[in-house]
Each structure stands twice: as C-alpha cells, then as structure tokens.
Amino acid sequence: MTNHSKPGLRPANPNFSSGPCAKRPGWTPEALANATLGRSHRAKVGKAKLEQAINLTRDVLQVPADYRIGIVPASDTGAVEMAMWSLLGERGVDMVAWESFGAGWATDVVKQLKLPDVRKIEAGYGELPNLSTIDFDRDVVFTWNGTTSGVRVPNGDFIPADRKGLTICDATSAAFAQKLDFDKLDVVTFSWQKALGGEGAHGMLILSPRAVERLENYKPAWPLPKIFRLTSNGKLIEGIFKGETINTPSMLCVEDYLDALNWAKALGGLDALVARADANAAVIDRFVAGSRWAANLAADNGTRSNTSVCLRFTDPDIAGLDDAGQQAFVKGLAALLETERAAYDIAGYRDAPPGLRIWCGATVETSDLEALMPWLDWAFATQKAALKAAA
After folding, report:
1. How far apart are CA 347 and CA 110, in angstroms?
2. Neighbours of 228 (CB within 10 A)
3. Are 31 and 370 in contact (CB under 8 A)?
4. Report field, pTM of the whole predicted structure over 0.70
5. Domain ranges of the chain
6. What are the beta bridge partners of residue 191?
7. Is the distance from CB of 54 to CB of 70 less than 8 angstroms?
8. Which of 19, 60, 193, 374 suits a disulfide with 200, CB 3.0-4.6 Å?
9. β-pairing, 235-236 with 231-232?
C-alpha cells in the first residue's frame, strides 16, 4: 500500500539515471590519478592504455578471440551509425524496433541512407515484436535491450547460426549486465557511460569475422566521412582494433573506463556483473508485486530488462489522466525525489508511456534500491494528494 510518511533512510547513492549511469561503488576522482594527461594518444604510453581497454573489454565481456574490438567516436550512436553506413546496402535489411532507439536506427536507414529494401518489424513500448518474422537471409539491425522500454530479447536463440545476412546489435544497455550470444552477433556496439558507469563520448565496435569479410568485399554506394571509415584499399584498418583510434580520445575517460573494467574483473567478471543486475531488478519486482499503483511496463517477465527497469501507473486516478496529465504527475514525483536526495533522474523517457525508469545495472548497490522503494511510495502518495488538493 502507499505510504504517506516520509522514510527515514535514504539511498547512500541516489544516482539511478539510465545514462550516464552510476559510477562503480567506492569510486572517487583518485581513480583517475594515473591518466596519461598531456601526452599524445599515439605515444607508446597512450596506445598501451587504449590497447589495455580493448583487452580488458574482451576479457570481461567474454568476446571470442577472432572478433575485433575497436574504440570509436561519438558513443554508442557513433558505433551504430558507423556499422550501418559501412555495412548496409549489400542486401535487404530488417529493422527491428520496440522503443525509441531502435526506431531511430530505422529512421536513419530509411530517410538518411535511403535504402530501397527495408522492412520494419515493430512493437509498442512494453512488448517484443514477433521475432520469428525476421528474415535472416537479410541484414538485421536490433537492440538487445530496449533502454527506453525495459524490454529485452531473452537470448540469441531466435538467430540462426547459418544466417546469410549480418546481425547488427545495439547492446549499449545490455553489455556488462546481460550475456550476449556473440556467435549469433556480427556487430555489437555499446558506450562507456552505460552499464559500467564510465564517462561519455566514446563507443565500442565489436566485429565478427563475417562482418570483417563484408567490409573488405563490399563498398557502399555513398561516400563515408573520415570517422566512419574502417577500411583502406579494400582492407580492414587493423590499427583501429589495436588502440589506434580514428580521432583523439579523452585519456581521462580512458582511465575511467579502465578503472571500471578492473573493478568488474576483480568482482568476478561477467557472471558477477549479471548477478548484481539481476539482484537489483529483483528488488523492483518484489516492490511491484505488492504495489497498488505501479506495474512493470514489460509485462512478460522473460523479456523484462534487468538494467533499464520501466514502471507504469496502475492507480486508476493517475492512469485515467491524459498523457499530458500523467507526464506532469511524473515530473512532480521525480522532482520530489530529487529535492529529498532520494533519487535522481528516474522519470521515464520522453517518448515512452508516462512512468518511471530506474537503472539497475551492476554499479548500483542493491541496498540503495531497497532504500529507494519506500521513497517511491511516499512520493507517489504525496504527489497524488497534491493533485487532489489542486482539483
């Protein structure tokens, strides 16, 4: 039931933003003390740091040895766009979307690349499309975890091993919290500021041997900007995947990413990270099970995210409001929590159904989520009372 009394215990860390996400537990600026500032990223020491970041990424994420890993500009967006502009067009493409980012990639392929043979396979927020309708003789672009809907694919079983097309997967809110089936994925992208709480502006591009073969044997019909070019004279630019970045990276951000990767490895690697995210999401699941006003936006537990957990309103007084009224309610509720320093940045994404979005990735402490739950009840009851008083 909702609680009108203000809780006594606040989360020790109220950062529940879905990006940039909370720093790893115990982080302080001292973690950046060994950053190679004032040095060229092309100097031996700089290249060694970048190569270390690639190697640790492979280790923690359990990336196959024959997959290339590169550090690229412009965060996950840059990595996805680089993959689409460099690889698509050789055959038809299926764009699979069930939230805003997947829909955005579809828009870019249709309106910017202007590919002639594009199928959209879509579902609304909270649902997953019918994955059996995807044609893997075509190229396929999809998100592993819908950051703004809280819906993820359960595994890679829907992707055939003998596919003819490439699979391009935006995994930015899945990497380091969910196990990616790399054997079924030809391109995987993510950003540093998501699941490990790193700093922004840098993306990761992981390529399978099949993706490399496409790059070396297919030339797009359109010109490629310099920051998108992965080949030279028909051959992969191998240096990109050994720490020789296309443009200048922030060595301060590199140091922060290394710190997060080393923390993840010391914790026990991917299995430990997944376990922490699962435990965090379970806190919200238990809360929702006893709530009179909230439900998971993702109705199917088998496709429910363990990172970007999205909640919708079931209380009839609030659910009955029009979209603008519900959005105003969310804004007021989130403002209450921020004023009380109980939670920052948990309003749902602007294009999603009105509700809350709470990050549950591995850098968040389970105890902080447990402390947050009574505050959600308090903020909801307080905001609803204010709404009734104003009526």
Report:
1. 30
2. 19
3. no
4. yes
5. 30-266, 268-390
6. 203
7. yes
8. 193
9. antiparallel
Output the pLDDT for position 391. 82
- Which tokens sit at 46? 């700089």
The CATH code belonging to domain 30-266 is: 3.40.640.10
Per-residue b or e along 330-350, where b marks 16 or more CB atoms closer than 10 Å to that residue's CB: bebbbebbbebebbebbbbbe
Pick the closest to residue 371 from 322, 337, 321 (CA basis). 337
CA distance 154 to 37: 42
> Of 306, 299, 352, 360, whose CA–CA distance to 145 is shortest?
306
Over the chain (391 residues), what is each successive 10-residue block's mean pLDDT? 78 98 98 97 96 98 98 97 98 97 97 97 98 98 98 98 98 98 98 96 97 98 96 97 95 98 98 98 98 97 97 98 97 98 97 97 98 98 95 82
Sheet strands side by side (includes 308-313): 294-296, 308-313, 355-359
What is the Cβ-side half-sphere exposure of residue 81, based on CA atoms within 13 angstroms?
A: 19
Domain 268-390: CATH superfamily is Aspartate Aminotransferase, domain 1 (3.90.1150.10)
The CA-atom distances, in angstroms, between 48 and each of 196, 205, 257, 311 are 21, 19, 14, 43
Largest alpha-carbon pair distance within the chain? 70
What pLDDT shows up at residue 2? 47
Residue 133 CB-density burial (10 A; 0-12 exposed, 13-18 middle, 19+ buried): exposed
SS3 for the chain is CCCCCCCCCCCCCCECCCCCCCCCCCCCHHHHCCCCCCCCCCCHHHHHHHHHHHHHHHHHHCCCCCCEEEEEECHHHHHHHHHHHHHCCCCCEEEEECCHHHHHHHHHHHHHCCCCCEEEEECCCCCCCCHHHCCCCCEEEEECEECCCCEECCCCCCCCCCCCCCEEEECCCCCCCCCCCHHHCCEEEEECCCCCCCCCCEEEEEECHHHHHHHHHCCCCCCCCHHHCCEECCEECHHHHHCCCCCCCCHHHHHHHHHHHHHHHHHCCHHHHHHHHHHHHHHHHHHHHCCCCEEECCCCHHHECCCEEEEEECCHHHHCCCHHHHHHHHHHHHHHHHHCCCCECCECCCCCCCEEEEECCCCCCHHHHHHHHHHHHHHHHHHHHHHHHHC
Q: What φ, ψ does residue 101 adopt, rounded to 5°?
A: -70, -45
